[in-house]
What does this fold into?
Amino acid sequence: MQLALSTWQEVERYLERSTGIIIPIGSTEQHGPNGLIGTDAICPLRISQHIETLQDVLIAPSINYGMSAHHMAFAGSVTLKPSTLVQVIIDVVGSLRRHGFTHYYFLNGHGGNIPAVTAAFSELYADVSEGDLSLRCRMANWWRDAAVKQLAAELYGEAEGFHATVSEVALSYYAYPEAVKDVPLSPEVAPTGEFFDAFDFRQKFPDGRIGSSPQLATVKDGERFCRLAADALLADYLEFLSA
It folds into this structure.
């Protein structure tokens, strides 16, 4: 059940069955020469949509902007300040809480969001009164699931990389097969290393990849990642609802 495609009456009826909601969150940032700028938002939303086919859940509209300051030397990237993202999370949860939701499961597609989202959770919990059980927040990073990591290792080895990874590009291609890009990449596997700011990132990793070889990505592999992640995250979500 999609919140954006529901009426308020349908949401009221849903709240009689469950007070949990899944909130996909990602970013709008470069993902190398063949990766879609929307990858980090596309992936958690597509996984959420698959979860919806397996269980009676409510999926919130995706938060498509994240903390992506380190990608701002690449055209098309958009970032929120960490403080802005913290406030977005607080306002989204605060709004939903007024309607009776209690469990907020942020399905995350972007590593750069982690500090701000966890900070937002801390701010929210700081305002909870003793004995108040009406607020529970969890963030799940789909790419960190053990089964997903194992499949990526089996399929791509070290070529999976760290940014513009093969698995995330494959999953975004599964979501939008019409947007698959056939682009030659050189070197075949991108370099790895430390970077400090957006300009340093662009200088060290000029095509936007870090350690990856995303030309290996296929729609078929993307479907496998989607199904694996959906199964694991649904189990985690159902356990979370009992917390």
Summary: The chain has a mean pLDDT of 97. The radius of gyration is 18 Å.
